[in-house]
Design brief:
The chain folds into 3 domains: 109 residues, Butyryl-Coa Dehydrogenase, subunit A, domain 1 (Orthogonal Bundle), CATH 1.10.540; 111 residues, Butyryl-CoA Dehydrogenase, subunit A, domain 2; 139 residues, Butyryl-CoA Dehydrogenase, subunit A, domain 3, CATH 1.20.140.10. It is built from 11 helices and 10 strands. Strand 2 and strand 3 form a beta hairpin. The structure holds acetoacetyl-coenzyme A (CAA).
Length: 385
């Protein structure tokens, strides 16, 4: 038919990635996710396997150690991995989106050789240091200071809630190099975590995603060579914001995976549990819940894939990523709660996974920009001249 331009089909390669990650998640993640959560256990073996499958630098060119795939493949893989284990999903997302992506985009070739390739290959793990005790949503209010001293910068300050922080080999670190300049005074560096003056605290205790460790870290007279600067002095805020445009696609995909896990387990249960003399799936009340859940999951996926396609095309996708993250995260909470309701009393039991999905979904409404921040980004885009 003439003029048909929209394509809702994945490519053959994207379908292969989906199959590979779905099977991997079913085999290696699903059977362990509950235990990792209960014991707050870092999924060491799974992270190693992600590296072997080239899933830690999916959209990084092969030249720099990555898989050289597109961002739709990344979204598809993130959904499947998170469907198996939401904690493993965010570990993967942080290394791909928040560490590798800015080094790839803003790094020099020499920096990419040293700070991208080993991380994209998964030999090393990265993290992203933007959040501070007094700079969460207000990311421009950075208090960590970097002062130039010859060919080095001396960094003092702290970061908190740094996902992958307890295990990371390097951090993309945001600092204030000129307080008077506000957001234009922020500068990014890549800093190895074995630098003198770098100190990290034990993993945080959290409501969900308990196997994905995060921590507070302190920098005390930490000297970093000027050559570790990512982008130019004062470019840091734009590095952070454009990185988060990609990161939000990763978190939206994680939310999708969590919702899928909750939904698919609920569907299965409706074929086992009987009430009032019939399977609960024969009650229209349950059918309506399942119909709403399926519709919301599909709607979220369309938003996520649209944002990923725009990133692949190299066009600004701040608003589309924010819409995908806003809708997918709030959808995941609604779906996980409905799934728990389908399980009734058993849903509230620690024996089942339903309660974990509710806890895991909740963070997707908070990190990489709260739902309120996503609405600010969307509205700013809507109302700009
Ligand atoms: N790409 C490039 N540049 C951007 C941009 C983007 N997406 N967004 C903003 N900018 C630029 C603007 O163009 C502007 O540039 P000029 O000064 O040259 O005009 C500059 O940045 C300032 O923009 P704003 O005035 O819009 O900035 P703001 O101070 O009002 O803040 C905000 C905007 C959207 C609220 C931002 O602070 C924000 O996103 N906050 C949330 C932070 C966040 O998501 N943190 C998550 C931490 S990471 C994490 O959670 C990891 C984890 O655990 C997994």
């Amino acid at each position: 038919m003439a003029g048909v331009a929209m394509n809702f089909e994945l490519s053959d390669l994207q379908k292969d990635i989906q199959k590979l990650t779905r099977e991997f998640a079913a085999r290696e993640l699903l059977p362990n996710a509950k235990r990792w959560d209960e014991h707050h256990e870092w999924p060491e073996a799974a992270v190693k396997q992600l590296a072997e499958l080239s899933l830690l630098g999916i959209a990084v060119p092969e030249k720099w150690g990555g898989a050289g795939l597109d961002n739709v493949s990344y979204a598809v893989a993130m959904e499947e991995i998170s469907r198996g284990c939401a904690s493993t999903g965010v570990i993967m997302s942080v290394n791909n989106s928040l560490y590798c992506d800015p080094v790839m985009k803003f790094g020099t070739d020499a920096q990419k050789e040293k700070w991208l390739a080993p991380f994209a290959r998964g030999e090393k793990l990265g993290c992203f240091g933007l959040t501070e005790p007094q700079a969460g949503s207000d990311a421009a209010a950075q208090q960590t200071v970097a002062v130039k001293k010859g060919d080095r910068y001396v960094i003092n300050g702290s970061k908190n809630w740094i996902t992958n922080g307890p295990k990371a080999d390097a951090i993309v670190l945001f600092t204030m190099t000129n307080k008077e300049a506000g957001h234009k005074g922020i500068t990014a560096f890549v800093v190895p975590t074995d630098t003198k003056g770098f100190r990290r605290m034990p993993p945080d205790k959290k409501m969900g995603i308990s196997a994905a460790w995060s921590c507070t870290m302190y920098f005390e007279d930490m000297e970093v060579p000027a050559e570790n600067m990512l982008g130019k002095e004062g470019d840091g805020f734009k590095v952070a914001m454009s990185t988060l445009d990609g990161g939000r696609i990763g978190i939206a995909s994680q939310a999708l995976g969590i919702a899928r896990a909750a939904f698919e387990e609920a569907v299965r249960y409706t074929g086992e549990r009987k009430s009032f003399g019939k399977l609960i799936r024969e009650h229209q009340a349950i059918q309506f819940m399942l119909a709403d859940m399926a519709t919301e999951i599909d709607a979220a996926r369309l938003l996520v894939h649209r944002a990923a396609v725009m990133k692949d095309k190299g066009v600004r996708h701040s608003s589309e990523s924010a819409q995908a993250k806003l809708y997918a995260s709030e959808m995941a909470s609604r779906v996980a709660n409905k799934a728990l309701q389908v399980f009734g009393g058993m849903g509230y039991s620690k024996e089942m996974d339903a309660e974990r999905h509710v806890r895991d979904a909740r963070i997707t409404e908070i990190y990489e920009g709260t739902s309120e921040i996503q609405r600010i980004v969307i509205a700013a885009n809507l109302l700009k001249d």
